[in-house]
Specification:
273 residues; alpha+beta; Arc Repressor Mutant, subunit A; Multidrug-efflux Transporter 1 Regulator Bmrr, Chain A; 9-stranded antiparallel β-sheet; globular
């Protein structure tokens, strides 16, 4: 637990020390010794917000503090905290603080503060978590793929599923799997997919991905989605992974396997430490 916690803390310190610089998720994740794909999942579970949200909220907090206490120009503060234009800065500032940047310079302006996150080691667990370690042969999936950003994937992926079925995609790809595959560290591919068998043609607009045989940690969930799935997903990253003494992550991907509307599994590739 401490190793993972300390890694996230180092990443947060790196963000704070470079808050006015261009921050790259690859460099941030290096501080936690995990891939950007997994770091963003772990950060969200530990901190309650995405990496992008954290950086944005911290910058807007510091920008407001400068505007309200220093004799500075709005354009200079906007550029300092990574905004290309006064308009984009003003929109973000209004969304976060509820006032425009020039109002922040006035005495008595109501501003919001998002403080740096400090992780505390607390007693967690104490609940029974089902899982099994299984060996799976190489398999291939076929499905419709779309790129997502970790900052808004929780909202956008359900829309992808709704669009898939609303346009008749369920007649071609039933959607037995939901598959996350790391792209470039900033975005990841998500596929609505089924198992692929070489004797069949690949449907138009679809693509395949092959996963090599290996070890998987399989976590069942029971109940209505997305609540039941998200609850187990949180337990994986907050409780099971940090406390596993035998296994660590392997491969920048994970799969959701849907058995029924209220039953399913989350598959995470692992290897022995």
């Amino acid at each position: 637990m401490n190793d993972l916690k300390e890694g996230v803390e180092k990443a947060i310190h790196y963000i704070e020390d470079n808050i006015c610089e261009e921050l790259d998720i690859m460099e941030i994740a290096k501080r936690a010794y995990v891939s950007p794909f997994y770091f963003q999942k772990i950060f969200h579970v530990f901190c309650g917000c995405t990496v992008g949200e954290y950086i944005r909220n911290r910058r807007l907090t510091l920008a407001a503090q400068e505007l309200s206490t220093c004799d500075v120009k709005v354009i200079d503060v906007a550029l300092k905290y990574g905004y290309d234009s006064p308009d984009s800065f003003a929109r973000a500032f209004w969304k976060f603080h509820g006032v425009n940047p020039s109002s922040a310079k006035q005495s008595g302006a109501n501003l919001k503060c998002f403080a740096p996150i400090r992780l505390k080691l607390t007693l967690e667990g104490g609940t029974i978590m089902e899982y099994k370690i299984v060996e799976k042969a190489t398999f291939t999936i076929v499905g419709k793929c779309r790129k997502f950003n970790a900052d808004n994937s929780y909202e956008e992926i359900p829309k992808f599923w709704s669009e898939h079925y609303a346009t008749g995609g369920g007649e071609i790809i039933q959607g037995v799997f939901g598959v996350c595959v790391d792209g470039d560290g900033k975005e990841f591919d998500y596929l609505i997919a089924d198992l692929y068998f070489p004797c069949y043609d690949i449907p138009q607009g679809c693509e395949t991905r092959t996963f090599e045989g290996g070890t998987w940690a399989v976590f069942p969930y029971h109940g209505e989605c997305p609540e039941a799935l998200q609850s187990v997903n949180t337990q994986i990253w907050r409780e099971w992974l940090p406390n596993s003494v035998q296994y660590e992550l392997a491969g920048n991907y994970n799969l959701e396997f849907y058995i029924s509307e209220t039953e399913g599994e989350i598959w995470v590739p692992v290897k022995k430490k």
